[in-house]
Amino acid sequence: MQRVLDAQVSALLIFAFQLDETERELLKRRNVRYLYIDYLHANEHCLYTDNIYGGRLAARYLLSKGVTKPCYVGVDPPAQANIDRYQGFSLELAKHGYPPCPTFECELSEEAGYEIGKKILNAGQFDGIFGYCDDIATGIIQAVREQKTAHRVVGFDGVRTTKYLNLSTISQEPSKIGTKAATLIVEIMRAKTEPSPITHCLTPILIDRDS
Question: 0.70 cut: is pTM over it?
């Protein structure tokens, strides 16, 4: 935070975490305005994705591919987005008569996804996997293809590499997030007085690559 203040910036884009009270006070004293990205806060400027709806899309995707025994791989340590995606996933499955969805956890990396993917495949209890993010899902799909199983896999984020891996994903449309974030932060910076909290929710989309 001291480095930020020393740099005399006019505004900040803050990704996926919340400032504490001391940090917020320091920024306000210097008149540094900020926008949360991928983090919902009722009393702050924020741009976020509807993760619950995204979880529902992931469930619909797996069910549409004939999955009858789905599971979810979350991130460790957990984040609010993780909770919301799992909630949406579970709600959609319950709507179709499925019991609470089994969960696994791993670190946020392709390597960890690969290892947890092997564990899931070896368990022999599931035929569809929803990965918290594309990094984790990338590792899982590598394990699936290595073992040549018929497991279905879907990720979340919409990063560019999923295109080349033919990995289905719930896309947050990263370029749209960047454009909207730039528009909002300029609007916030140019306001003569601190504007009322601006919240903007983005609706994710399914990119079906038949994975």
Answer: yes
